[in-house]
Amino acid sequence: MWCENCICKVEPVGTFEEDYHSEVDAWEKFKILKCPHCGEELIYNADKCECGEYKCEKEEYCDSCIEAVEEVLSEAVDKLEKATGLDCMGAIDLLAYKLEM
To answer: What is the per-residue pLDDT for 10?
Structure first.
């Protein structure tokens, strides 16, 4: 499972809780999966990114890949600004145009 709080893959710890349902006048016992480190309720599964690192199943890529892409894009925008004289948004638009091709 994936802990959103710890931002890592964890082996869940199951705890049982009871809840009263007035519409059927009954108590229901159910298992909640929690992080063994912080106690946060676990909702999402862990999944592997294309690079091999673990990530939350709802994300396309892991944090390391996203950070690497952001760094490369920032450098590319800076280089385009210097090479063309475009402002930041102009350089971003030019990059987006070429990436869509």
So the answer is: 95
